[in-house]
Amino acid sequence: EFSLADIAVAPIAHRCLGFPIERPALPALEAWHERLQARPAFRNAVQA
User: Fold this and answer.
1) What is the number of structural domains in the chain?
2) What is the extent of the structural domain holding 12?
3) How far, rounded to the nearest angstrom, does the alpha carbon of residue 17 sit from its chain's CA centroid?
4) Which long-range contacts (CB under 8 A, 24 or more apart) does 13-21 make?
5) CA-to-CA dists, residue 36 to 2, 9, 14, 24, 39, angstroms
6) How far apart are CA 29 and CA 47, in angstroms?
7) Is the whole-model pTM more than 0.85?
8) Average pLDDT of the chain?
9) Nearest to 27 by CA among 3, 47, 35, 42
């Protein structure tokens, strides 16, 4: 499922996960981010 919460959090999470900083392992967040990046609409929005 994809919800309004995903749309609201996606830009923030995408930017934060892209920072080259040390962070604890967050397997659920990383898996969600990978699924998000697989969505064509997300890829188009990020490339815009």
Assistant:
1) 1
2) 4-47
3) 7
4) 14/46
5) 9, 11, 9, 20, 6
6) 21
7) no
8) 93
9) 35
- 10, 36 contact by CB (below 8 A): yes
pLDDT-derived band at 46, boundaries 50, 70, 90: confident
Per-residue 3-state assignment (H helix, E strand, C coil) for the chain: CCCHHHHHHHHHHHHHHHCCCCCCCCHHHHHHHHHHHCCHHHHHHHHC
Identify the residue with better confidence: 13 or 47.
Answer: 13
Specify the amino acid at residue 10. A
Q: What is the pLDDT of residues 14-31, one digit of tens each?
A: 999 999 999 999 999 999
